[in-house]
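4.2 Preliminary Data

To establish feasibility before requesting continued support, the project team ran the inverse folding procedure on a target of 327 residues. The structure was first converted into the token representation described in Section 3, and no sequence information of any kind was made available to the design step. The complete token record follows.
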């Protein structure tokens, strides 16, 4: 009874017959070829050279599939047993297409390398469990082929995506990352860090009450985050500007806006007013430095100029808040 209750619905690789091992290999090669073609389709518009690499890798997988089908037909006939990797315990799995659409070019390259390594391990294990000499030889040859796919990938890359092309594609990847995440996130951080300085410090010096100041800062930060997030997502769908998904941009902008305000709000959870205010000022200075660093790192703005801009702007807003709170 207990064995039935805890028995896995998947089979172990050790329990598969030679016919099932061959059928599993055929299905895996079919799936991998489809995955490479899906990568090619995703990359074709933006990275045509890399797309061509994945198209030719799919051709290689199809060649393997045809070899496996030929020996399967010779040994077991025309009907291929239906068994897939999701039916086998411990067998490597592949993500469905809808989970791969958001992958970056670099992650796609990494996924392809991982696929080849996993296929190599499967063929080595499968070959050790097959007694038929021609089948064992084919599986061993496929293991060597999968092991050598890293070299095939490199050669195809040199053919279709030489170093100059790869550098251009990498620049395009970085540019897209900046447009989709860094730019809206930076705008949100600047707005959240700078615009909330005045209301928070005005409330602090007007009330001398850390809890009331915390509530003002929390409401200003969260409200600004929601507003900035919706504004960023709604004003540009990214289709013409090429700035990427409006949802991703909206989340980046909204979250960074809220974090920018919360940074110098959270110290007011400390009951002592002077301690909380001193810590809030230190954090505000750190936030302004972080803005200057991001501008220099990703937007190629000279650091001193970026620092001068944010320090002057932040100082003016901070001073305005303190003056209003003391009036």
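Position-by-position output of the design step:
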């Amino acid at each position: 009874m207990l064995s039935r209750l805890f028995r896995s619905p998947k089979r172990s690789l050790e329990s598969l017959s030679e016919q099932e091992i061959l059928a599993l290999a055929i299905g895996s090669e079919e799936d991998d070829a489809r995955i490479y073609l899906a990568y090619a389709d995703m990359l074709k518009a933006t990275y045509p050279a890399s797309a061509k690499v994945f198209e030719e890798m799919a051709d290689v997988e199809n060649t393997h599939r045809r070899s496996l089908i030929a020996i399967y037909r010779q040994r077991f006939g025309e009907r291929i047993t239906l068994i897939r990797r999701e039916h086998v315990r411990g067998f490597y799995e592949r993500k469905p297409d809808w989970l791969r659409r958001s992958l970056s070019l670099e992650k796609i390259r990494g996924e392809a390398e991982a696929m080849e390594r996993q296929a190599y391990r499967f063929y080595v294990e499968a070959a050790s469990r097959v007694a038929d000499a021609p089948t064992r030889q084919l599986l061993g040859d496929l293991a060597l082929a999968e092991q050598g796919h890293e070299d095939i990938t490199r050669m195809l890359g040199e053919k279709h995506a030489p170093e100059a092309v790869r550098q251009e594609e990498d620049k395009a990847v970085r540019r897209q990352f900046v447009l989709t995440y860094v730019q809206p996130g930076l705008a949100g951080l600047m707005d959240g860090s700078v615009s909330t300085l005045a209301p928070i410090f005005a409330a602090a010096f007007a009330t001398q009450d850390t809890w009331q100041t915390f509530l003002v800062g929390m409401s200003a930060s969260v409200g600004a985050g929601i507003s900035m997030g919706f504004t960023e997502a709604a004003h540009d769908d990214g289709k013409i500007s090429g700035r990427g998904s409006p949802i991703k941009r909206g989340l980046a902008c909204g979250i960074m806006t809220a974090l920018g305000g919360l940074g110098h709000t959270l110290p007011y959870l400390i009951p002592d007013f002077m301690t909380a205010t001193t810590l809030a000022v230190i954090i505000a200075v750190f936030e302004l430095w972080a803005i200057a660093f991001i501008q220099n790192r990703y937007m190629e703005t000279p650091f001193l100029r970026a620092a001068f801009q944010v320090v002057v702007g932040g100082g003016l807003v901070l001073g305005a808040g303190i003056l209003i709170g003391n009036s």
